[in-house]
Amino acid sequence: MKNNLLFIVLFSCCFAFGQSNQIDSLTTKLKEITTPLEKAKLNLLLANAYERIDLNKAKVFAYKALKFHKNDSLLAETSNQLGRFHFFTANLDSASFYFSEAKTLLKKIKAEKRAAIINISLGAIELRKGNYENTIKILTESASFFEHNNDALNAAKCYSNISSAFAELDNFDKAIEYSEKALTVFNKNNLTQFQLITLPNLATQYFKKGDTLKAVDYYHDAETIAKSVNDNRSLSIIYNNLGNIYLNSDIKKSEAYLLQALALKTSLNLRSGIGITKSNLGYIYLKKKDYNKAVILLSEAEPLIKGKQLSSIYEYLSKSHKGLNHYPKALEFAEKAKQLNDSLLSAENQKTILDIQTKYETEKKEKEILQLKADNLEVNYKRRQNRNLLFATLIALIVAIFGISMILKNAKRKRIIMEQNLTIQEQNFNQLLKSQELEGIDAILDAQEQERNKMAADLHDNLGSKIATLKLYLESYDENDSFSNFYQKLKSLMNETYSEIRSIAKNKNFGTQIDKGLIPSTKNIAKQISYSNKLDIKVINVDVKNRIENTLEIQLFRIIQELLTNIIKHADATEAIVQFSEDENVLNIIVEDNGKGFDMKQKRIGTGLINIERRVDKINAELVIDSSEGSGTTVILNIPL
Questions:
Q1: How many domains does the chain have?
Q2: Which pLDDT tens digit goes with each residue over 370-383?
Q3: The pTM of the whole model exceeds 0.85
Q4: Which of these, 17, 283, 454, 562, is most buried using a 10 Å CB contact count?
Q5: What's the CATH number where 576 sits?
Q6: What b/e readout covers 123-150, taking b as 16+ CB neighbours within 10 angstroms?
Q7: Which domain covers residue 561, as residue numbers?
Q8: What is the tens place of the pLDDT at every residue in 57-108?
Q9: Is the torsion defined by CA of 546, 551, 557, 559 positive or negative?
Q10: Which residues lie closer than 8 Å to 238 by C-beta, 6 or more apart?
């Protein structure tokens, strides 16, 4: 079974190892700095430092850096960091968006070299998407730019990714040539992180060319370096590829390497390549006749694999179920393998037919071009005869057109002025509508608050006091009376009724009066929801110490209620976190879940989100939503105090 995963160069700046000390130092400085720009810079440095340790923390610090909107250079580097985060989590469209944003900002401030470096990342995305010819084109142009500017390091980064593209096109001689050019530069400058990229690539290329011994040597060189710098991400890919090399020659070695790769990928939450690792382990257990383990791993790999490799998984699952005497399942997967193979064969035949048809059409067009050239010779002769007459006519037409264009230009200018006035009027009207709508919402909210308070008071004071009186009356009743059993039942019933009424009175007023503050009330509703054992909500207070104005607390609590309701209704999440922090008179609230997420480009705006956005506008807050399919949703609120 395939696959030897290729490393892709995606480093726009040098990354220093030994991050722990660096993180401690940066965290200490962050507590001491008060200037917004300097805090943003430190958050960006922390995002970079956490990149190979904890991608989720890296994301949080990157978004904090993104809060500073006044410096194009800083915004460009922050967008670049977010692009790297999405690239490493296989969200290629989001990565492309942030890299393009960074490139645009850098060109705006005339930072041509830094923009060219971002271009390496865009080339890496094309490589990951499988657009190999486009990868070679983009990165060859970038390499020429760096060579012209005597920038050997960035040119070498381009060589490394060009090499990977040639390898995917099965041109291993060219792939090895570019890899060795890159490795020469990285070795000369003792750049460990880039050696860790190029050595495994060379190993893979030599393996596919048939030189297994040289491939294993290169992998062991890369393993030594990765261990020395504690780079578990690189080790996971190295062990995966070593496991693939020994897959059919030494099952024991292959299993050991693949298990190490799987453990590292799982601990790092890496989705890329984990399906191949599981499928290869499943294949090993099938050969060892450990059919139960084979079925488990192959079933986990099935939704992560496509194409010809999926057909192999179906075949292995069929054999595994056959070994377990599950003949209906064995037959089912055998049929799936057959259908997929037939589909792939049909696609290949269709491609062959299209290639032949394209060649035929090309030859036909070439003949048509020759005929057109002959016809053009005759046409040109007649054209020259009419040219002089045409010039005279054109002069007259130009004079007429000039006059007409002046008239049209004046009319167009008047029309543009009218359209601008209409646009301004429309904007003013929309603003008025929005203001009136917000006032209406406020009036409804105030009425709801008053009604809830009134209902709670009536339940507690009137009906509660009557039941309490009845309770006292029953307690004074003689327990030796013949109706004692009946009395006990009545007493228990009255106690329950009294407690129920108090509970109703409290719940009716719940969420409106936040007596204990925003954070305790949020913890209370989180606790109630968590009792269901379906969704575990954690509320974390980082450094918020003071109460905020009650009206603002109510608005924020309503927003949090709406967000938690959306998680319950739509996210299919099992865990959620609500985090509060305060930074220079700005309250920061992050609501994050591990649910199914959604595509930001295709999101549908519902009533809940509209209510949230209106509340956010009312309190002059900032709302940031980040989500992608399969990666949960993060909502960030920044509220000025």
A1: 1
A2: 556 545 555 565 67
A3: no
A4: 283
A5: 3.30.565.10
A6: bbbbbbeeebeebbebbeebbebbeeee
A7: 518-640
A8: 777 888 787 776 678 888 888 888 888 888 888 888 988 898 898 889 888 8
A9: negative
A10: 200, 219, 222, 223, 226
